[in-house]
Specification:
The longest helix is centred in the N-terminal third of the chain and has 30 residues, at about 5-35. The protein has two domains: about 5-65, no CATH class; about 95-120 and about 125-135, no CATH class. The chain has about 140 residues and is an all-alpha fold. About 50% of the residues lie in helices and about 0% in strands. It is built from three helices and no strands.
């Protein structure tokens, strides 16, 4: 979490530089081809890119981390042996659940959605717990 805002700022600066680099290249071509181009559209594009990035980053960090989706997909293959009939496969990303605001809510949400698919018996259901780094 301590590097999250630094990463957001670095990506925002890089996004702001893209239109400026394009402007410099167009300006150099314009000098050689004897035409002029204004700076304003490139400045506006840089502001829009950074604003969109900030909105996406804020949304993803505040709301996106609690939105988990479980999809059930049934696949059938003719060449699959009968011994695989009824086999369940769970694909889940690595959840890096660090201790902080909303961690217990996040762990409970993920655990509740994966529990029906757990191969562990109901007497000993697996639960997710927050990752606590050792010092």
């Amino acid at each position: 979490m301590k590097y999250l805002f630094l990463g957001i700022i670095i990506i925002g600066v890089l996004l702001a530089l893209v239109p400026h680099v394009i402007y410099i290249m167009v300006r150099l071509v314009g000098l050689m081809a004897h035409f002029r181009i204004g700076y304003r559209p490139f400045g506006v594009a840089a502001l829009i890119l950074v604003a969109v990035w900030i909105v996406i980053a804020i949304y993803g960090n505040i709301y996106g981390r609690f939105r988990h989706e479980v999809k059930q997909v049934q696949l059938s293959f003719e060449s699959l042996p009968a011994s695989f009939d009824g086999l369940r496969i769970i694909q889940s990303p690595t959840y890096t659940l660090t201790v902080g605001k909303g961690t217990s809510k996040n762990c409970s949400s993920v655990s509740a959605r994966l529990t029906p698919y757990s191969p562990i018996s109901s007497a000993s259901q697996a639960t997710l717990s927050p990752y606590r780094p050792t010092s």
